[in-house]
């Protein structure tokens, strides 16, 4: 029987850093360019990079219905997630809070899997879900108290979280046999087309070309190529539960990066939310012990 191993620090650290750095970098990007224009360019470049990797690696390309399934997975995972996150940050949602909300993905995915795929949701995972909701509510409550008003843009961030979780489940259900390299190219291409249409109506513009260009290149290289590759390697080494648990470390790492880079000083509510989110992710991704079956 195959037994998953622990993920070494040499692999875990890059996964956390690549994902965490994406939120402050995204905030810098939307400060220099319109959010959907930035997202469309990022996804288009990512599609080109993944397409080259697939061609060089001799990947088998999806055909027939598999193309449609890949496109739907891409719209959920990439268009909804990044469109929601960047749209929210452009409207004032801090990078650290965005990272905290998106870190709820493992917990929300477990809940959606129980609801849609009839997967068993244990008491431990229910507790994780409750803590996750509490973490978000405390963090958002702290933001409202600090700013004196509710920022409706957080709804875009929550939409991004929903897309991330739903996309993962759709991929699990319909895209299991598709090569991740060619499938990723199809996914990001479909997402780029849809976001590009939205960007046209956004009347996007760039106010700082150098800052926007550096942000996009960093997001493509570390997020879409290196980050995804490192994460998939972590899944192969330690299993999906251990790999997804690494996202517990993403919000605090994001807060550390955003402090000097963006001047976002983490409040007490954010620190408490991060602690609760970490506990929620650990519980939400915990592998349940199974009772041995008599031979």
TrEMBL record:
<feature type="transmembrane region" description="Helical">
    <location>
        <begin position="268"/>
        <end position="285"/>
    </location>
</feature>
<feature type="transmembrane region" description="Helical">
    <location>
        <begin position="244"/>
        <end position="262"/>
    </location>
</feature>
<feature type="domain" description="EamA">
    <location>
        <begin position="11"/>
        <end position="140"/>
    </location>
</feature>
<dbReference type="GO" id="GO:0016020">
    <property type="term" value="C:membrane"/>
</dbReference>
<keyword id="KW-0812">Transmembrane</keyword>
<feature type="transmembrane region" description="Helical">
    <location>
        <begin position="39"/>
        <end position="60"/>
    </location>
</feature>
<keyword id="KW-1133">Transmembrane helix</keyword>
<dbReference type="Pfam" id="PF00892">
    <property type="entry name" value="EamA"/>
</dbReference>
<feature type="transmembrane region" description="Helical">
    <location>
        <begin position="152"/>
        <end position="170"/>
    </location>
</feature>
<dbReference type="InterPro" id="IPR050638">
    <property type="entry name" value="AA-Vitamin_Transporters"/>
</dbReference>
<comment type="similarity">
    <text>Belongs to the EamA transporter family.</text>
</comment>
<feature type="transmembrane region" description="Helical">
    <location>
        <begin position="182"/>
        <end position="201"/>
    </location>
</feature>
<feature type="transmembrane region" description="Helical">
    <location>
        <begin position="213"/>
        <end position="232"/>
    </location>
</feature>
<keyword id="KW-0472">Membrane</keyword>
<feature type="transmembrane region" description="Helical">
    <location>
        <begin position="126"/>
        <end position="146"/>
    </location>
</feature>
<feature type="domain" description="EamA">
    <location>
        <begin position="152"/>
        <end position="283"/>
    </location>
</feature>
<dbReference type="InterPro" id="IPR037185">
    <property type="entry name" value="EmrE-like"/>
</dbReference>
<feature type="transmembrane region" description="Helical">
    <location>
        <begin position="97"/>
        <end position="117"/>
    </location>
</feature>
<dbReference type="InterPro" id="IPR000620">
    <property type="entry name" value="EamA_dom"/>
</dbReference>
<protein>
    <submittedName>
        <fullName>DMT family transporter</fullName>
    </submittedName>
</protein>
């Amino acid at each position: 029987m195959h037994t998953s191993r622990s993920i070494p620090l040499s692999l875990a650290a890059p996964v956390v850093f690549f994902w965490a750095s994406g939120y402050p970098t995204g905030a810098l990007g939307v400060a220099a360019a319109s959010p959907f224009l930035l997202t469309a360019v990022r996804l288009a470049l990512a599609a080109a990079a993944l397409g080259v990797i697939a061609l060089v690696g001799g990947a088998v390309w999806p055909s027939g219905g598999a193309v449609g399934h890949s496109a739907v997975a891409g719209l959920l995972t990439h268009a909804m997630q990044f469109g929601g996150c960047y749209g929210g940050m452009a409207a004032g949602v801090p990078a650290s809070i965005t990272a905290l909300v998106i870190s709820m993905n493992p917990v929300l995915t477990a809940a959606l899997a129980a609801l849609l795929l009839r997967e068993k949701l244990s008491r431990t995972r229910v507790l994780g879900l409750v803590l996750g909701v509490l973490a978000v509510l405390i963090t958002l409550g702290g933001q409202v108290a600090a700013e004196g008003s509710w920022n409706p843009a957080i709804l875009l961030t929550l939409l991004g979280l929903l897309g991330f979780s739903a996309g993962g489940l759709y991929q699990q259900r319909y895209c299991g046999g598709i090569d991740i390299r060619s499938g990723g190219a199809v996914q990001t291409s479909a997402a780029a087309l849809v976001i590009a249409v939205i960007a046209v109506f956004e009347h996007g513009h760039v106010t700082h070309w150098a800052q926007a260009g550096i942000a996009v290149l960093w997001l493509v290289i570390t997020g879409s190529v290196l980050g995804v590759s490192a994460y998939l390697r972590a899944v192969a080494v330690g299993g999906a539960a251990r790999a997804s648990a690494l996202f517990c470390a993403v919000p605090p790492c994001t807060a550390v990066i955003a402090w000097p880079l963006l001047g976002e000083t983490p409040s007490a509510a954010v620190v408490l939310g991060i602690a609760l989110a970490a506990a929620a992710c650990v519980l939400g991704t915990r592998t349940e012990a199974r009772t041995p079956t008599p031979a």
